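Hi R.,

Here's the chain you asked about this morning:
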Amino acid sequence: GLNSSLVHSSDDPKKYLNAMWTGGIIRNSLLTILICAVAPLVGAFFGNPLIVPLIYVLSLSTFFVGFENVGIVLLEKELRLNRKFLFDLSIVTLEVASVIIAAFWFRSAWALIVGAVANRVIGVALSYFFHSYRPRLTRDLSGAWKLFSYGKWVSISAIFAFFIGQGDNIVIGRMLSPQELGFYQLAFTLAFIPALEFSRVFGNVLFPMFAKLQNDPGMLERAFIKASRLIFAAVTPMSLGLLVVLPEFVRVFYGERWMPMV
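And here is the predicted structure, written out as C-alpha coordinates:
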Protein backbone atom coordinates (compact mmCIF):
# COMPACT_ATOMS: atom_id res chain seq x y z
CA GLY A 1 0.00 0.00 0.00
CA LEU A 2 2.99 2.36 0.15
CA ASN A 3 2.90 3.20 -3.57
CA SER A 4 -0.79 4.09 -3.45
CA SER A 5 -0.22 6.10 -0.30
CA LEU A 6 2.56 8.10 -1.97
CA VAL A 7 0.33 8.90 -4.97
CA HIS A 8 -2.45 9.93 -2.57
CA SER A 9 -0.24 12.11 -0.33
CA SER A 10 -0.10 15.86 -0.92
CA ASP A 11 3.33 16.14 0.76
CA ASP A 12 6.64 16.37 -1.08
CA PRO A 13 7.06 12.74 -2.20
CA LYS A 14 10.86 12.74 -2.35
CA LYS A 15 11.24 12.87 1.41
CA TYR A 16 9.61 9.44 1.64
CA LEU A 17 11.38 7.62 -1.20
CA ASN A 18 14.46 6.28 0.63
CA ALA A 19 12.35 5.06 3.54
CA MET A 20 9.92 3.42 1.10
CA TRP A 21 12.74 1.68 -0.76
CA THR A 22 14.42 0.43 2.42
CA GLY A 23 11.09 -0.69 3.88
CA GLY A 24 10.22 -2.46 0.64
CA ILE A 25 13.47 -4.45 0.69
CA ILE A 26 12.87 -5.51 4.30
CA ARG A 27 9.23 -6.40 3.64
CA ASN A 28 9.93 -8.43 0.51
CA SER A 29 12.86 -10.25 2.12
CA LEU A 30 10.61 -11.33 5.00
CA LEU A 31 7.88 -12.36 2.55
CA THR A 32 10.40 -14.45 0.59
CA ILE A 33 11.41 -16.27 3.78
CA LEU A 34 7.74 -16.82 4.65
CA ILE A 35 6.95 -18.22 1.20
CA CYS A 36 9.87 -20.66 1.39
CA ALA A 37 8.81 -21.72 4.89
CA VAL A 38 5.24 -22.60 3.85
CA ALA A 39 6.19 -24.16 0.48
CA PRO A 40 6.32 -27.76 1.88
CA LEU A 41 2.91 -27.22 3.51
CA VAL A 42 1.47 -26.05 0.18
CA GLY A 43 2.88 -29.14 -1.53
CA ALA A 44 1.30 -31.36 1.15
CA PHE A 45 -2.04 -29.54 0.88
CA PHE A 46 -2.30 -30.16 -2.85
CA GLY A 47 -0.75 -33.63 -2.56
CA ASN A 48 1.92 -32.66 -5.06
CA PRO A 49 5.51 -32.36 -3.74
CA LEU A 50 6.71 -31.45 -7.26
CA ILE A 51 5.45 -27.88 -6.80
CA VAL A 52 7.70 -27.20 -3.78
CA PRO A 53 10.88 -26.43 -5.77
CA LEU A 54 8.77 -24.33 -8.16
CA ILE A 55 7.62 -22.23 -5.20
CA TYR A 56 11.18 -21.85 -3.91
CA VAL A 57 12.36 -20.41 -7.22
CA LEU A 58 9.21 -18.34 -7.74
CA SER A 59 9.76 -16.69 -4.35
CA LEU A 60 12.81 -14.99 -5.87
CA SER A 61 10.46 -12.77 -7.87
CA THR A 62 9.10 -11.41 -4.58
CA PHE A 63 12.63 -10.78 -3.34
CA PHE A 64 13.84 -9.01 -6.47
CA VAL A 65 10.85 -6.67 -6.80
CA GLY A 66 11.75 -5.12 -3.46
CA PHE A 67 14.74 -3.48 -5.17
CA GLU A 68 12.67 -1.73 -7.86
CA ASN A 69 13.39 2.00 -8.17
CA VAL A 70 10.68 3.81 -6.18
CA GLY A 71 11.10 6.75 -8.55
CA ILE A 72 8.75 4.87 -10.91
CA VAL A 73 5.89 5.78 -8.56
CA LEU A 74 6.57 9.45 -9.30
CA LEU A 75 5.75 8.83 -12.97
CA GLU A 76 2.24 7.88 -11.92
CA LYS A 77 1.88 10.64 -9.33
CA GLU A 78 3.07 13.30 -11.78
CA LEU A 79 0.84 11.83 -14.54
CA ARG A 80 3.84 11.25 -16.81
CA LEU A 81 1.84 8.40 -18.28
CA ASN A 82 3.63 8.20 -21.62
CA ARG A 83 6.84 7.17 -19.85
CA LYS A 84 4.94 4.88 -17.47
CA PHE A 85 3.30 3.23 -20.49
CA LEU A 86 6.67 2.62 -22.14
CA PHE A 87 7.98 1.16 -18.88
CA ASP A 88 5.04 -1.25 -18.54
CA LEU A 89 5.11 -2.16 -22.24
CA SER A 90 8.83 -2.94 -22.12
CA ILE A 91 8.36 -5.27 -19.15
CA VAL A 92 5.48 -7.15 -20.78
CA THR A 93 7.30 -7.50 -24.11
CA LEU A 94 10.48 -8.82 -22.52
CA GLU A 95 8.53 -11.14 -20.21
CA VAL A 96 6.70 -12.71 -23.16
CA ALA A 97 10.02 -13.17 -24.95
CA SER A 98 11.63 -14.77 -21.91
CA VAL A 99 8.71 -17.18 -21.39
CA ILE A 100 8.78 -18.26 -25.06
CA ILE A 101 12.53 -18.86 -24.95
CA ALA A 102 12.22 -20.72 -21.64
CA ALA A 103 9.35 -22.83 -23.07
CA PHE A 104 11.56 -24.02 -25.93
CA TRP A 105 14.38 -24.74 -23.49
CA PHE A 106 12.55 -26.40 -20.56
CA ARG A 107 9.29 -27.63 -22.18
CA SER A 108 7.69 -27.79 -18.73
CA ALA A 109 6.12 -25.63 -16.02
CA TRP A 110 9.60 -24.29 -15.31
CA ALA A 111 9.18 -22.00 -18.33
CA LEU A 112 6.46 -20.03 -16.52
CA ILE A 113 8.53 -19.85 -13.34
CA VAL A 114 11.62 -18.65 -15.19
CA GLY A 115 9.49 -16.11 -17.08
CA ALA A 116 8.01 -14.74 -13.85
CA VAL A 117 11.40 -14.37 -12.16
CA ALA A 118 12.95 -12.89 -15.31
CA ASN A 119 10.06 -10.41 -15.45
CA ARG A 120 10.92 -9.12 -11.98
CA VAL A 121 14.63 -8.86 -12.72
CA ILE A 122 13.93 -7.03 -15.98
CA GLY A 123 11.44 -4.74 -14.23
CA VAL A 124 13.99 -3.78 -11.58
CA ALA A 125 16.66 -3.05 -14.19
CA LEU A 126 14.29 -0.99 -16.36
CA SER A 127 13.03 1.00 -13.36
CA TYR A 128 16.48 2.59 -13.05
CA PHE A 129 16.55 3.28 -16.77
CA PHE A 130 13.15 4.98 -16.90
CA HIS A 131 13.66 7.23 -13.86
CA SER A 132 16.75 9.13 -12.78
CA TYR A 133 16.10 8.91 -9.03
CA ARG A 134 18.60 6.73 -7.19
CA PRO A 135 17.33 5.47 -3.82
CA ARG A 136 19.62 4.80 -0.88
CA LEU A 137 19.31 2.63 2.21
CA THR A 138 18.33 4.55 5.34
CA ARG A 139 17.83 3.78 9.02
CA ASP A 140 15.05 6.34 9.33
CA LEU A 141 11.87 4.49 8.38
CA SER A 142 9.50 7.05 9.88
CA GLY A 143 8.44 8.17 6.40
CA ALA A 144 7.43 4.65 5.47
CA TRP A 145 5.43 4.30 8.70
CA LYS A 146 3.62 7.57 7.96
CA LEU A 147 2.63 6.33 4.51
CA PHE A 148 1.59 3.00 6.01
CA SER A 149 -1.08 4.76 8.10
CA TYR A 150 -2.99 5.20 4.83
CA GLY A 151 -1.50 2.31 2.92
CA LYS A 152 -2.41 -0.32 5.52
CA TRP A 153 -5.99 -0.28 4.25
CA VAL A 154 -4.74 -0.96 0.73
CA SER A 155 -2.63 -3.82 2.13
CA ILE A 156 -5.54 -5.31 4.07
CA SER A 157 -7.84 -5.08 1.05
CA ALA A 158 -5.14 -6.73 -1.08
CA ILE A 159 -4.97 -9.68 1.36
CA PHE A 160 -8.74 -10.15 1.15
CA ALA A 161 -8.64 -9.71 -2.62
CA PHE A 162 -6.02 -12.47 -2.86
CA PHE A 163 -8.20 -15.00 -1.06
CA ILE A 164 -11.30 -13.88 -2.97
CA GLY A 165 -9.45 -14.08 -6.29
CA GLN A 166 -7.54 -17.30 -5.57
CA GLY A 167 -10.00 -19.10 -3.29
CA ASP A 168 -11.71 -20.83 -6.22
CA ASN A 169 -8.35 -21.97 -7.63
CA ILE A 170 -7.30 -23.32 -4.23
CA VAL A 171 -10.52 -25.32 -3.86
CA ILE A 172 -10.44 -26.68 -7.44
CA GLY A 173 -6.73 -27.50 -7.20
CA ARG A 174 -7.37 -29.41 -3.98
CA MET A 175 -10.48 -31.32 -5.09
CA LEU A 176 -9.94 -31.88 -8.82
CA SER A 177 -6.99 -32.57 -11.11
CA PRO A 178 -4.29 -30.12 -12.29
CA GLN A 179 -5.68 -30.52 -15.83
CA GLU A 180 -9.16 -29.37 -14.79
CA LEU A 181 -7.64 -26.49 -12.83
CA GLY A 182 -5.74 -25.49 -15.99
CA PHE A 183 -8.95 -25.45 -18.06
CA TYR A 184 -10.71 -23.41 -15.39
CA GLN A 185 -7.91 -20.86 -14.92
CA LEU A 186 -7.46 -20.22 -18.63
CA ALA A 187 -11.23 -19.93 -19.15
CA PHE A 188 -11.52 -17.47 -16.27
CA THR A 189 -8.60 -15.40 -17.56
CA LEU A 190 -10.00 -15.26 -21.09
CA ALA A 191 -13.47 -14.25 -19.89
CA PHE A 192 -12.04 -11.56 -17.64
CA ILE A 193 -9.62 -9.98 -20.13
CA PRO A 194 -11.98 -7.24 -21.50
CA ALA A 195 -12.90 -5.91 -18.06
CA LEU A 196 -9.45 -6.36 -16.54
CA GLU A 197 -7.34 -4.76 -19.26
CA PHE A 198 -9.69 -1.86 -19.96
CA SER A 199 -10.05 -1.10 -16.25
CA ARG A 200 -6.31 -1.43 -15.70
CA VAL A 201 -5.54 1.16 -18.38
CA PHE A 202 -8.09 3.60 -16.96
CA GLY A 203 -7.05 2.86 -13.39
CA ASN A 204 -3.48 3.98 -14.07
CA VAL A 205 -4.86 7.39 -15.04
CA LEU A 206 -7.82 7.70 -12.69
CA PHE A 207 -6.19 7.03 -9.32
CA PRO A 208 -3.63 9.87 -9.51
CA MET A 209 -6.35 12.11 -10.97
CA PHE A 210 -8.70 11.27 -8.09
CA ALA A 211 -5.85 11.98 -5.67
CA LYS A 212 -5.54 15.50 -7.09
CA LEU A 213 -9.30 16.00 -6.64
CA GLN A 214 -9.42 14.68 -3.06
CA ASN A 215 -10.07 18.17 -1.63
CA ASP A 216 -13.07 18.75 -3.92
CA PRO A 217 -15.62 16.01 -3.06
CA GLY A 218 -18.20 17.25 -5.54
CA MET A 219 -15.79 17.20 -8.48
CA LEU A 220 -14.40 13.86 -7.30
CA GLU A 221 -17.88 12.32 -7.21
CA ARG A 222 -18.75 13.55 -10.70
CA ALA A 223 -15.42 12.32 -12.11
CA PHE A 224 -15.88 8.90 -10.48
CA ILE A 225 -19.41 8.46 -11.86
CA LYS A 226 -18.40 9.53 -15.38
CA ALA A 227 -15.40 7.17 -15.37
CA SER A 228 -17.54 4.26 -14.13
CA ARG A 229 -20.12 4.87 -16.86
CA LEU A 230 -17.43 4.98 -19.54
CA ILE A 231 -15.80 1.76 -18.38
CA PHE A 232 -19.15 -0.03 -18.13
CA ALA A 233 -20.21 1.20 -21.58
CA ALA A 234 -16.96 -0.05 -23.13
CA VAL A 235 -16.57 -3.38 -21.31
CA THR A 236 -20.15 -4.65 -21.62
CA PRO A 237 -20.26 -4.99 -25.44
CA MET A 238 -16.71 -6.39 -25.45
CA SER A 239 -17.70 -9.12 -22.98
CA LEU A 240 -20.96 -9.91 -24.78
CA GLY A 241 -19.12 -10.07 -28.11
CA LEU A 242 -16.64 -12.57 -26.67
CA LEU A 243 -19.56 -14.64 -25.34
CA VAL A 244 -21.11 -14.87 -28.82
CA VAL A 245 -17.94 -16.05 -30.60
CA LEU A 246 -16.44 -18.04 -27.71
CA PRO A 247 -16.66 -21.62 -29.10
CA GLU A 248 -15.18 -20.60 -32.45
CA PHE A 249 -12.55 -18.42 -30.76
CA VAL A 250 -11.31 -21.26 -28.54
CA ARG A 251 -11.34 -23.77 -31.40
CA VAL A 252 -9.33 -21.48 -33.73
CA PHE A 253 -6.84 -19.93 -31.30
CA TYR A 254 -6.41 -22.73 -28.74
CA GLY A 255 -7.43 -25.93 -30.54
CA GLU A 256 -9.89 -28.77 -29.99
CA ARG A 257 -8.14 -30.08 -26.88
CA TRP A 258 -8.98 -26.83 -25.08
CA MET A 259 -12.73 -26.92 -25.81
CA PRO A 260 -13.59 -27.76 -22.15
CA MET A 261 -12.72 -24.09 -21.50
CA VAL A 262 -15.95 -23.05 -23.17
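One quick note: Residues 217-253 form the longest helix (37 residues).

Cheers,
M.
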